[in-house]
Design goal:
The chain has one domain: lambda repressor-like DNA-binding domains (434 Repressor (Amino-terminal Domain), Orthogonal Bundle). It is built from eight helices and no strands. Helix 2 crosses helix 3. It is mainly α and 123 residues long.
Length: 123
């Protein structure tokens, strides 16, 4: 399997985890919806197990989105390079921040939050 294929599997898993987390669903809840164990959901989300096309469709239906939303666009690949959103959505805390941040309606507040996070990260 090529490195690129592994990267896509990992990206799909991270996007599944991000969407699930943004909806407030546990891995167990998603597993029940799909008729699989939470351990299998963990394996999909970590990229350990590749998600079949039919299972990915089931996941998209369960999470109320399109299958395409789980794949990075070519533009995102070029823009993100080796970093980008991957470190942010790799943790539950990062996914929570990523899910909540766009819901902050005030642009000034979003800028302030961004500055606080940058200051904390460099401390």
């Amino acid at each position: 399997m090529s490195r690129r294929s592994q990267d896509i599997d990992h990206a799909v898993g991270l996007r599944i985890a991000s969407r699930r987390s943004a909806l407030g669903l546990s891995q167990s809840a998603l597993g029940r919806e799909l008729g699989i164990s939470f351990q299998q959901v963990q394996k999909y989300e970590s990229g350990t197990n590749r998600v079949s096309a039919s299972r990915l469709h089931q996941i998209a239906v369960a999470l109320g989105c399109s299958v395409a939303e789980f794949f990075p666009s070519q533009h995102e690949d070029q823009k993100e390079g080796a970093t980008g959103m991957k470190p942010l959505i790799a943790t539950a805390e990062g996914r929570a921040i990523a899910a909540a941040f766009p819901r902050i309606p005030d642009l000034t507040v979003r800028h302030a939050v961004s500055r606080v996070v940058e200051a904390l990260a460099s401390a």
